[in-house]
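Troubleshooting log. The previous structure file for this entry was overwritten by mistake, so regenerating from the original sequence record. Sequence copied from the archived sheet and checked twice against the printout by T.R.
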Amino acid sequence: MADSIYAQGTAVWYDDKELGWTDGVVTSTEVNGKDVTITLSNERQGKPVVVRTSLDAIANNDRKLPPLRNAPEFDDVEDLASIPHLNEPSLLRVIQARYAQEKIYTFSGIVLVAVNPFTKVPLYGADAIKKYSGKSRENLEPHLFSIAEETYTAMRQTRRSQTVIISGESGAGKTESAKYIMRYLASVSERASGGGASTVERRILATNPILEAFGNAKTMRNDNSSRFGKYIQILFDESHTIVGARIQTYLLERARISSLQLVRGERTYHIFYQLVAGASAAEREPLSLNRPASEFSFLAGGSFDQDAEAKNFQTTKHALSTIGITDHQMTSVFTLLAGLLHLGNVEIRQYHTSPDAILDETEPSLITAMNLLGIDLKEFRKWTTQKFFAARGENIRSVRTVAQARSVRDGVAKFIYACIFDWLITKVNSRLETNESMTKEQAFIAVLDIYGFEHFERNSFEQFCINYANEKLQHQFTSHVFKIQQKEYASEDINWQSIEFSDNQPTIDLIEGRLGILSILDEESRLAAGADTTFIEKLNWQLLGSTGGKASANFRSTPDSFTVKHYAHSVEYDVEGFLEKNRATVPEEHLELILKSTNMFLRAVVETSINSGKRAMESRAPTPPPMMAASVPSTPRKMRPMSGIGVQNLVANLTNGLDRVHHGPKGGAGARKPTQCSIFRSSLKLLMDTLVQTDIHYIRCIKPNENREAWALDPALTLAQLRACGVLETVRISLSGYPNRKTYEEFCSRCVSFLTQ
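Regenerated output below.
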């Protein structure tokens, strides 16, 4: 009888607003015809819970029924696919029970679930690497190294490139996971080559402290948050030895370089604190850094440990040296960074009640900043406080307001820092991917470490782009795990029950469709009169008015914000600053001043960055050779000296070059400069095209609590993340389908020994 499933004494789960789910026991079951009344114990609320259902609902395992609870011996399984009653609360119970025993890894079908311990754990030493090397995951407990070994073995056996996608919210432990996987691959490659760590392996590992120093920052949710995305490909030759690497980065958060963007408890990039804390007296003197960090506007937003940052600075310098950055180049980078700190201190004020900006030529920080950056002080002052624009054939002079002038000042700082970051990535790639490595490359193992889904009290352009990227990755995961496998089973007439899953394609269409949010944002950003207010008006008209409410299920708005229903959470975005951040440009007069700088290193850095942007727009995912995955374009060329080139012509050539790349050879009024979101969108497309040409492995990182407390797990928070990343559906499809697959040739090779003569 169907009602016997919920007989008296049956262990079940029931909803709990605080805990997500809590234990329950059936105390009685009454059947009246086809109707069934189930009474559950409820110790937390002090009164029983009554569930009214039917025999048909019980027979069909209706989702509204209380989920069945597993016996205690199943609370510590290593693979969630092995529990008898496969349901949401049972998955959470296993994760909780294992975490309470300080077991942070659990398999979920083809996915590894990793729960952040928020403390150091002794799981990644040489003994652990040796333990997992050459072993299949079935023979050892779940671990990051299980996935790393799986990728290495698959690459050797199939000669196909592999990708490990590490996803999760900010603070879930993605960056640390990526570092340990890279360390494991370097170690097993050493053994394959029969020697110690090679120069290229040391350089690959040295990229971690460099990227963290220049691309990570402390946020309210994470002390070491990656404020950019990265796809690191480790290149292997035919003997499975590392011969090189290449790094692709995505959307550095420029807004970190501004005192206005920092809130209590947040900081700008680590490298600034390292420089102020760790530079020697001889290094500080020419950079005018003989003052506390709190006296710099860009650094005043967060506290830091002086000794720890000084130690980190030495680690960063050693890593830069390992990668091949010379002492002279390091000094040049630190000079620019110091110049940006002083630029942030430049005081722009107004005269009495007038809103017009005033910038004194004798302002000490202005003098220091311009000296370090090699920029003409008088011209910088002039173009920061005023602007000229054409109207009816005449040049009209206009004085900037204080807010506008400060925005220009910060915009120059953001632009220069982004150029430094691009230059650094270009230099790193030139050391990791040589002509020799490209010749020897047979396949790669890549690690994708990209920003996690973000939802703050105030969400802006950066969060919109980050969450857009996560939507694309979630869709890739859905397509790979659910759509493709279900279609394959159906095409082969395999009898199995189709699994329902959440498809986020409508949200992606809302964002990147022909008349979606990105298109409207770009259109408005390219209009001289475009503003945040007109952007939200066009969103309302296009997405709500003209479509008859077609997008209303995933989109709604207010006069100064819009809300998107993402796969993980609905997020409200404040449109203030959207257009400025999307344009991400400095006034042409300031760009010309930068390219006239007497600091030759600054000029080279800017040219490198602009040319790398051109190459990013030109890039297309290449077609891989048979049995191998694609490679991304080769390392950018070194920048040529700029002597003898007219600066105005250079500015025109660089910016027009971007116009041609993005919109073809036509210039003039029809040419459009690429915006930040258009560049980011192109980069994401290239990434997705590359991913589909590799075998993909998944690690889902979970943030167990918001306070970063060691070994503390918030059930409701953890459950929300398990829901969002599709862990339950992954297990269900693994059980309903055939997760272990072999080709006919592989099957024969492995089973030939069972054949008799």
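The longest strand covers residues 20-32. Archived copy saved in two places this time.
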